[in-house]
Amino acid sequence: MHPKIQPRRRRLRTAVWSLVTTLVVAAGLAGVVLWQHSYAMDEQRVSIRHGGHTLNGVLVTPKDGRERHGLVVYVHGDGPVDATHGDGYKPLWEANAKAGYASLSWDKPGVAGAPGNWLGQSMDDRADETAAAVAWARARPDIDGDRIGLWGASQAGWVLPKVAAKTPVSFVVAVSPAINWLRQGRYHLLAELRADGASASRTRAAIAKSDTTRRLLERHATFEEYLKTMGGDADGMTADRWGFISENYTADAARDLRALRDVPVLLALAGHDVNVDVAETERVYREVLAAGDTLTAKRYPDATHSFLRQSVERSDVKTTLTALFSPRSLFADGFLDDQRQFLEDLDRGHNTPL
């Protein structure tokens, strides 16, 4: 054998085995991803008519063989959110399914091809939309109309009690809900400035700009006036967004929370929430709902506003890898289990306020 042939064959064998090893590892990782993103529930696309247009929704049901289920209706927070929240709701839906509950959610208007524009909605509009979805679900033979409740995060805190005032609901899960729009905005601004280590001068400038914006809102200024006042610097603001804020900046959940006095409420509070003053939220919920004695407040020390674990959310790499290989682990410890337990306790009839 020629002396040069043997090393060449060894290199070829090494390359082949390296390729085989890479393919095996890739296949294994792909299998893990597929397994982790397989949820114990059935999903179907649904259409809900409301106000002359269609809500494009997803109805998720447990795989338990029962003909009828209770239902958790999802109310999104701020932003252009689709029905699954980019698949972020799926671990929550699975927890509901384990408790024997279905889940219903839909694309916001203008999102994922849905008609309309979510920035054209008031909180009352959103409540009307949700009440219509509850009515649609109540008419279905596979949904137990006496066990329909709401789940809502962040901005949904202004929507949930409005829905309960319009239609009977069996429970509410409120996740990081704000109380007062303007106070929430100021809290968020100051929390971000502190997190950034902003100087005193930068902080004063940011507060002055915020105060100017409030004055413009109070006198119903147009977007053009806003731009002119800010020296032409929109700083991310759009005409649609300005219209949305102008419509909703007076929102205050305290005025509507009385509608929840006789409704079991699970209030989830994050320990690292820079968006919402959870101390104010808990205080107001306890004050308003004290008469009904139906409030359960749960605190999650490692949770951020989005209820991801802080150690995960502060790293884009960790967030991406966890979302791929262990999506249920994105959430703060106990968050999924507590919601499952809350629903199970409702059916057993022994929810204990905390």
Question: Could you give the topology of this structure?
Answer:
Blueprint (H helix, E strand, L loop, with lengths): L4 H32 L5 E9 L2 E9 L7 E7 L14 H9 L2 E6 L16 H16 L4 E11 L6 H7 L5 E4 L5 H15 L4 H19 L4 H7 L9 H10 L16 E8 L5 H12 L5 E10 L5 H4 L2 H10 L9 H14 L6
Parallel strand pairs: 3-4, 3-5, 5-6, 6-7, 7-8
Antiparallel strand pairs: 1-2, 2-4
Outline the structure in words:
With 354 residues, the chain is an alpha/beta fold. It has 3 domains: 1-36; 42-180 and 251-348, 3-Layer(aba) Sandwich (Rossmann fold); 183-248, no CATH class. It contains 12 helices and 8 strands. The chain has helices spanning 5-36, 90-98, 123-138, 160-166, 181-195, 200-218, 223-229, 239-248, 278-289, 310-313, 316-325, 335-348; strands at 42-50, 53-61, 69-75, 101-106, 143-153, 172-175, 265-272, 295-304. It has an 8-stranded mixed beta sheet, with helices on both faces. Strand 1 (42-50) and strand 2 form a beta hairpin. Helix 2 (90-98) packs parallel to helix 12. The protein is globular, with a radius of gyration of 24 Å.
